[in-house]
Design brief:
This protein is an all-alpha fold and about 180 residues long. The protein has a domain of about 100 residues. Helices cover about 90% and strands about 0% of the residues.
Length: about 180
């Protein structure tokens, strides 16, 4: 019974958050108070680590992050529950919008609403980015800052595939781990 209750809580939290946020990175800021502070399912460091894992997996960030978190909290059942909670709201919303799109596309109120939502999502993403940066600096040190600057410059100023950046970060992390491990022995 306890695992079933946990799965229902997990589903309801993710379902409500997925229904009320724009998904992507914004979902992480809203999930954190529930998973870390309220239910204490994860530590803050573990939450940040799982968010990082969810972001590097190809596909929708919101779904990936929720599935990774759900798996950590309740195993395979948690991953499936989190996936359902994440995908049902946008599916229903897109279904409804596709059915009524022609009748609302030229409505001025809809345009104003969409402009307002774009501004709100931008502010929310900035907030998530700043909070994640502030919280992650406890764990990453100088190496994290260097990788962050390189990644930002790579993404902003080149048109190359992000696969090359991913390979570089893997290689740099491997080298750093080997060097740190050697000096700690």
């Amino acid at each position: 019974m306890k695992k079933t209750l946990k799965l229902w809580k997990l589903f309801l939290i993710i379902f409500i958050v997925s229904s009320t946020t724009s998904g992507g990175h914004a979902i992480t800021a809203v999930l954190k108070p529930y998973f870390v502070r309220r239910y204490k399912w994860l530590s803050e460091e573990e939450f940040l680590d799982l968010i990082s894992v969810g972001q590097i997996i190809p596909g929708s960030i919101a779904i990936n992050v929720c599935v990774v978190l759900g798996y950590r909290i309740a195993g395979i059942a948690g991953a499936l529950t989190a996936m359902a909670g994440t995908t049902i709201p946008p599916f229903v919303f897109m279904l409804i919008v596709s059915l009524i799109y022609d009748s609302i596309a030229d409505n001025i109120l809809v345009r104003y609403f969409m402009d307002g939502m774009q501004a709100a999502v931008t502010a929310l993403l900035l907030c998530v980015t700043v909070r994640t940066f502030i919280e992650s600096r406890r764990y990453s040190g100088w190496f994290g800052y260097i990788i962050m600057v390189i990644s930002f410059a790579y993404a902003m100023f080149t048109d190359w595939s992000l696969l090359y950046l991913f390979i570089f970060v893997l290689f740099a992390t491997f080298i750093r781990t080997r060097v740190v491990t050697r000096y700690l022995k």
